[in-house]
Amino acid sequence: MEKITMTTPLVEMDGDEMTRILWKMIKDELLLPYIDLKTEYFDLGLEHRNETDDQVTMDSAEATRKYGVAVKCATITPNAARMTEYNLKEMWKSPNGTIRAALDGTVFRAPIVVKGIEPCVRNWEKPITLARHAYGDVYKNTEIKVPGPGRAELVFTAEDGTQIRETIHNFTGSGILQGIHNTDESIASFARACFNFALDTKQDLWFATKDTISKKYDHNFKDIFQEIYDTEYKDRFDAAGIEYFYTLIDDAVARVMKAKGGFIWACKNYDGDVMSDMVSSAFGSLAMMTSVLVSPSGVYEYEAAHGTVQRHYYKHLKGEETSTNSVATIFAWTGALRKRGELDDNKALMAFADKLEQATVRTIEAGKMTKDLALITSLQDVTVLNSEEFIKAIRESFEQIM
Ligand code: NAP
Ligand code: MG
Q1: Residues 128 and 240 in one domain
Q2: Residue 121 region, left (φ>0) first, then alpha (ψ -120 to 50), else beta?
Q3: Whose CA is nearest to atom 42 of ligand 1?
């Protein structure tokens, strides 16, 4: 077979530990034999981030803005233990945080659904994609521990000095206070990212808050979504045969549990944090969860939702066999290649991505899988493969499909 050619490079962000090992195996076995792979390579491995004073992370975000599509390997977010382990100059920030701040995006997480790995919720037949607003609310709060009786007020001082003042509570004893905020600009870009992603993936979009109780704060989210939908997206949603609707978060939770899946659920920051953990655990495994950062300017960064699988890496370093699941990392690559194909009108690249995903799913459905899946599968007589054997088994399925 002739290798598929690419016209525009995609940004490749290499990472750390076990996922860095898988990264190379995936490229060698599943990509390079079939594609004349064009990437702009950035080594986000912790050693190189340290050497470059983290400049490499900034550069990779800049390149992503330029080329429009990136694929990222999991990376270590340094903590005190990593400072010693890697002899770091500084406790560098989370690369994901840096990239998200640079691209101003919304993160969409979706499970990879496979027969034999059944969600705990029996009626979920299709994936549920969670869209989490990643700015503000309780994540940027100001809190006071109220020592005793007194009046708490909410005060806004405009640039010209005029004030808006509301009494929060007249305390008769000790208590607590919290101030939170969001901006119309951030909410609007969150809304646009959700509408664009719904159009892109042809799925309905649900959005839910607690606007019946929070009549100004949450209501503002609801209004901004509705206005942007009505003025910019309604016609395109109608043409695509998909739907946007707003509902109260209690109602959304109840409906999600009864739904078949196949839609996007947009949540405010805290709701998204909690609900994405619930949805991903209910679907079975973090190793089967993809994640894509979509910026309002239409830039896409694909990755696995899990980390660098440190415990497996230490086993690997000791020369012991590992059985680490590479599915989410493979799907990060196929997501990025498909998007590159769409943007460049490269049909062969898009078809390749589809077939590699099919081959991955078929391998698992044929009972060949890594240990983490073998522990939760409903299939009988499964073969547990090591990290490398699993990737080779996917290559075999892929060759059969071709
Ligand atoms: P983790 O790498 O997600 O792994 C936690 C545990 O989940 C593993 O020990 C393993 O369980 C299981 N697991 C996760 N992915 C798996 C896979 N692909 N195949 C099989 N099992 C898998 O989280 P962590 O150990 O808390 O974090 C390790 C490092 O990753 C940290 O330095 C953290 O900063 C970083 N991290 C990076 C990202 C990112 O780049 N997006 C996200 C999260 C964490 P068993 O050990 O029981 O087999
Ligand atoms: Mg969480």
Answers
A1: yes
A2: beta
A3: 307
